[in-house]
């Protein structure tokens, strides 16, 4: 997430009790929803590295998870879910430092991990926005394998670069930045396949909505999680696109929340439950700020 000053965050978020009282009436009306809210669960921990969750991956059954954190950490664990499918807890959670290609823990501007994608062989791809790049990890906590870095990444805005990432049905890796550089400029989408990067298409920018997470669902569609900020809280939106070669179509809104319905949702994983419904599971980035929360949020699409 692009950093705001501590003073600005205090002004915007310090009165969260009030936000939950009136926030759903502010920040624009929610559109008719194609996604139904299943549940929200707040994850709390006193572990030193805990917080700043920005990218999320789930197993096919929606239970095992991996997530990346803003300060160069990767988390793994297993979700507990109730009979209705909502998250009720986390078990077997571990947090490990992300490492560079020499095996050293990441430091400084190289730590800001934002996007996460899991390949068929369970290797992990992580995108970074402090110094824009993508790295492959054969295993969590392992040594980074650096992917080629195109010159175009140098032109991305500092601290607002490679935010969302996903692996398509064709095993290609897709990523896009949080900011495009201007409100009338579309978001470039880069694709990595065959050992090279290309920029086949772009997604139109829609007002203040910024992409923060992405995933391909079991239906082969591309799901984009977007965020806006309105005075006293965050708004979230999920859109669905079809990608066919170098062409992208669609963009229907599946979910759009009012202000402060959820915290700062940044990671998304799309999977299918036992009833055949597409599920959207998201995680929030608390920015390591005491008035925010780490939330697991679940929505369900009709089968």
Helices and strands, in order, run as HHEEEEEEEEEEEEEEEEEEEE
Total strand count, please?
Answer: 20
Tell me, rounded to a whole number, the average pLDDT: 89
What share of the residues lie within helices? Answer: under 10%
Structural class: mainly beta
The low-confidence parts are 2-25
CA gyration radius, whole angstroms: 18 Å
Q: Strand order within the widest sheet?
A: 1-20-19-18
What fraction of the residues are assigned to beta strands by DSSP? over 45%
Supply database-style keywords.
single chain; 303 residues; mainly beta; four-stranded antiparallel β-sheet; 2 helices; 20 strands; globular; disordered N terminus
Structural commentary:
This protein is mostly beta strands and 303 residues long. Helices cover 5% and strands 49% of the residues. A 4-stranded antiparallel sheet has the order 1-20-19-18, with no helix packed on it. Strands 2-3-4-5 form a 4-stranded antiparallel sheet, with no helix packed on it. A 4-stranded antiparallel sheet has the order 6-7-8-9, with no helix packed on it. The chain is globular and about 45 Å long.
In brief:
This protein is mainly beta. It has helices at 6-13, 16-22; strands spanning 35-43, 53-58, 64-69, 73-81, 87-97, 113-118, 124-128, 133-137, 144-146, 162-167, 173-177, 187-193, 196-203, 210-216, 222-230, 233-244, 247-256, 265-272, 278-284, 294-301. Helices cover 5% and strands 49% of the residues.
Write the layout of secondary structure elements.
Blueprint: H1 6-13, H2 16-22, E1 35-43, E2 53-58, E3 64-69, E4 73-81, E5 87-97, E6 113-118, E7 124-128, E8 133-137, E9 144-146, E10 162-167, E11 173-177, E12 187-193, E13 196-203, E14 210-216, E15 222-230, E16 233-244, E17 247-256, E18 265-272, E19 278-284, E20 294-301
Antiparallel strand pairs: 1-20, 2-3, 3-4, 4-5, 6-7, 7-8, 8-9, 10-11, 11-12, 12-13, 14-15, 15-16, 16-17, 18-19, 19-20
